[in-house]
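Field notebook, page 368. I keep forgetting to write these up properly, so this time I am using the form the group agreed on. The chain and the ligand, magnesium ion, are recorded exactly as supplied. Prediction of the bound pose follows.
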Amino acid sequence: MNLRLKNITKHFGKQKVLNSLSLEVKSGEFHVILGPSGEGKSTLLFIIAGLIKPDKGEVWIKGKNITHLPPQKRNIGFVFQDFALFPHLTVFENVAYGLRAKGLSSKEVKRQVNFYLEMVGLEKHSHKYPHQLSGGQKQRVALARALVVKPELLLLDEPLSHIDAWQKEKLRDELKQIQKDTGVTTIYVTHDQLEAKVLADRISVLHQGKIEQVEPPEELFYQPKTDFVARFVGAGNILQGSIIQLNGKKATFLLKDSNTKLVVKYYPLFKEKKEVQLCLHPERIFLNKRPVKENHLLGKVIKVKKTSSGYRIKVSVEGLIFEAHAFKNSFSEGEMVWVCFDAKALHPLCGRCFREPPEFRRCRLERL
Ligand SMILES: Nc1ncnc2c1ncn2[C@@H]1O[C@H](COP(=O)(O)OP(=O)(O)OP(=O)(O)O)[C@@H](O)[C@H]1O
Ligand SMILES: [Mg+2]
């Protein structure tokens, strides 16, 4: 089922948490909402579920305005940030709760609960109470409890946040598989970028009460559209300057307060003398002892840091810091190095996509 949020605004006291937020989630989609802590992700899920009323705006499901429909009539499954299992009920009874509330026969309840407990790998733990379970097992109970009532929409609020790294990976894969098998439209909230990358069909980034960018993971991580998204996804090489010449499929960009010129792939929003911000993803920089590629700038290595996936190397070029990612590193701090990249490695930050200005749309088409 598809979901549409139209201009949702929510205040807590004087604090505006959601600011005329609009979003569309497609039927069957695994949609991740990504954003820093305290940005209103949980609030948004509570509004979708009907547990919090928005001050303004509408929630539409399957083409119907359900803004004023009570939560129990929405057919939505919710896995809360803290699981919220009933402590005095066994695993079996926690999962059975929603079915019993619907008045199903004992035989049918047993059949369905066992089916979902097996799906999440907990059939041998059905007699236990929540305090006898690990964090990962509690997460699975919460998931089975949400799925057993066959929701049309599944809301998951950071369900893996209390789970250790090893179990997290396993549960993430299982979750993705269960979502695929059931086909349930899913909204998954997290501030973990890796989780978002692995799970999502599309990701929405929440910032200052609005959605800044909605795109599939590859585009969002490699083609961020705003300064905030670029920095948030670790693509923080943002170059200020202006377009000084258009040459067919390419353009010339002049770095601000510098004589350095760069070759950039042409985007329709470029105009001569227009100031633009260009983003250069760290993975698209190639550090080399000799100048290669269309763009090459000589700089000094100022920091080399080991990361989980390789190295982050900071290079200072005329006082401007470039961050490069490399799987292997052969440079040491203080060494001179060429920062090399193709014209197509640069793309303009063309603004929040919820506004969808014509320039943005053309920019999006152009880069495909
Ligand atoms: N019931 C409430 N009363 C007052 N303020 C609230 C209430 N619920 C949330 N807030 C505030 O609204 C803001 C957004 O909270 P929310 O829980 O939606 O953030 P979040 O993005 O889910 O954060 P996290 O990633 O830490 O879970 C926070 O500043 C929070 O303090
Ligand atoms: Mg939250």
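OBSERVATIONS:
- The first helix runs from residue 41 to 49.
- The longest strand covers residues 295-307.
FOLLOW-UP: compare against the apo run.
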